[in-house]
Amino acid sequence: MRVSGLNWQGLMEQLQEALPYCEVTDHTLAYFKYPRRSVKVNLPVKMDDGQVRVFTGYRAVHSTARGPSIGGVRFREGLSRHECEVLAAIMTLKAAVADLPLGGAKGGVDVDPASLSAHELEGLTRRYTTELVELIGPNEDILAPDVGTDSQNMAWIFDAFNEGRGTSISGMVVGKPIALGGSYGTKDARGQSAAMVTARALEQDGGVQNARVAVFGYGDVGAKAAQLLRQQGALIVAASDRDGAVYASGGLDLDALAAHREQTGSVAGFGTGLAIKPEELLELDVDALILAFDFGTVNAGNAHAVRARYLVEATNRAVLPEAERYLHAKGIHVLPDLVASIGGVVVNYVEWVQSHTNFFWTEGEIEKVVEQHINRALDEVLALMNEHGIEMRTAAYTLALSRIASATEMRGVYP
């Protein structure tokens, strides 16, 4: 699924709604409207057949007002510089909501990673790193996994960076394998925050017990959110991925579904549920719809069919602004990415701190730290919601802009 609509205009329009609730001057907001740096790189890679293919890569750094930038590297066909710039700005906001000393960045390569062999994928990852080696680092810009990349890509980035610099440091990349200084909880944190935010909303509106939940994008994030909500008594009635979707009115057997995914790589063909089309999942009458696929899942073209009471952005910008306005008018609430997927940036921050200090926490300690950060951010956003009577996204933007503006004003503007 791919739609247009990820743009500065939509983001700025939503930010404008937060301005009455925070003290942000025009010249401070001007800093937010433009990325600090945005680069395009050409990436020649020798393919397995001996031919050289040139790919296009990008890296956008939005802000370093509160600290070095951090953000994912996505390998996705059709990736554009503009997409990276908007997502980098959202990362700046997300880090500010979490009150982390970081700014936002995003980058990647216009490529379908499934079309490459493992050898070609490694070559492309290393070439991308080499082209950016003078711009990234633990105190400058920190890379992380995103759509189409994983811990193996981060391991190649780790090695290529240190080979290029003649160093042996690890803090320029997070989401690494544990053996290379990675952190526990990397795969679980975004699902953890999505589940926590969903549960908090449902508790105020009928309770979690027997609440009907559907998950669009049943990968690591969606599966973790589903698992945690099921433990609290929710019924996970539907799940989808790129290959298909499955529905069971009485709730899916998540253990059996996990075994099926392990064997086949997909939820498609799961025998104890009804096969449906992924787009049909978006139309189900459920209490919460968790969106864990990619940006633009719910847009102007399909928002009219959504019947869930809550949409949960477990990934960045899953609901586009024009769709959100329509849903709000229907009384459907969006639990935004700035809160619902905040666990990802928190666990990346934890790994970055561990790399700096060379001191590593246990899995249980990390899970507790991540939970504390999520709860604190959620409490602060909910307090602003209640104080001003505004939607959660506007409250999150209010909190983020206040912190970014404060840092920008204190650092000052020089000619």
Automatic annotation (TrEMBL):
Pfam families assigned: ELFV_dehydrog, ELFV_dehydrog_N
Q: Does the keyword Oxidoreductase apply?
A: yes
- Does the keyword Oxidoreductase belong to this entry? yes
- What is the recorded name of this protein? Glutamate dehydrogenase
**Per the database record, which ranges form the Glutamate/phenylalanine/leucine/valine/L-tryptophan dehydrogenase C-terminal domain?**
194-412
Spell out the family assignment given in the record's similarity comment: Belongs to the Glu/Leu/Phe/Val dehydrogenases family.
Keyword vocabulary terms for this entry? Oxidoreductase
